[in-house]
Amino acid sequence: MSWWSSLRRRWRRPTPVPDALWAHTLQQLPFLQALSAPERNTLRGLCAHFLAEKEFTGANGLQITDAMALSIAAQACRPLLHMHGPDGRAVRQSADRLDWYGDFVGIVVQPGAVLARREVRDPVGVVHQYTEALAGEAMDGGPLMLSWEDVASAGERAAIGHNVVIHEFVHKMDMRELSPGEEPQGAPVLPDGFLGLNDRRAAAAHWQRVMGEAYAGFREAVAMAERFGGEPPWLDAYAASNAAEFFAVTCEAYFVNRERFAQDFAALMPLYDGFFNAAKAG
């Protein structure tokens, strides 16, 4: 934890989340209702700190209400509920888990998806330009953008394992410790003693092997569906884009529809339980 974030957290006492507003948030997000009472209390406290540290901006005339901000906070903080610190070590207090999101302050909320111009160079050097509709975007060291239309439908979209807030904030986790110009690879900093492996290199190798096999299997399933009319995978085919997107998309499903996720990605369950410390109290 940086000196500044520690000092800010010490002197900027968060305002408690009002009971009625918290009850409304839980009602809108059924996947949070499955948490135990102590877990919900921990999450509520994390949300209060999150709201004290982040700044929301509504774009294109969108007005950010308390309910909107809290909904985003609750979804963003869900992955942090039992986590270690971004250095891999245990945290001293619950709010220190927010250091995973310590490289930015601003959250820009758009009314709906944003059209962005993209440019890619293929293997033979030809540049291709296209337009992509973005429901969210996380920038390394910069602000985070979300589409409110997608955020507001989080409760409904849990059935298909979709959650744009968790997706973008998991990207932020994956971006920790990157070198300048380096791209995220779906390989975040693992906690000390990950899955009983005391050697960090061995733990990282295990993570990469299991993730790599799951990613390859998913890409094959997507290809079979697209080229040969096979049954499409449950999760969004966007997860086949690259390893970082596979990590973010599967994390969405892990948190909002754990039961179905376990059916399709049994090999990833121990991995994600170990990374997010799912078996530990917050």
Automatic annotation (TrEMBL):
- The organism's place on the tree of life at top rank: Bacteria
Alphabetically, the GO molecular function entries are: aminopeptidase activity; metallopeptidase activity
Q: Which residues cross the membrane?
A: none
Family annotation (InterPro entries): MetalloPept_cat_dom_sf (IPR024079), MtfA_fam (IPR010384), MtfA_N (IPR042252)
A GO cellular component annotation here is: cytosol
Entries under CDD domains matching the protein: Peptidase_M90_mtfA (cd20169)
Q: Which Gene3D superfamilies does this UniProt record tie to the protein?
A: Collagenase (Catalytic Domain), Glucose-regulated metallo-peptidase M90, N-terminal domain
Among Pfam families, the record links this protein to: Peptidase_M90 (PF06167)
Specify the protein name. Answer: Zinc-dependent peptidase
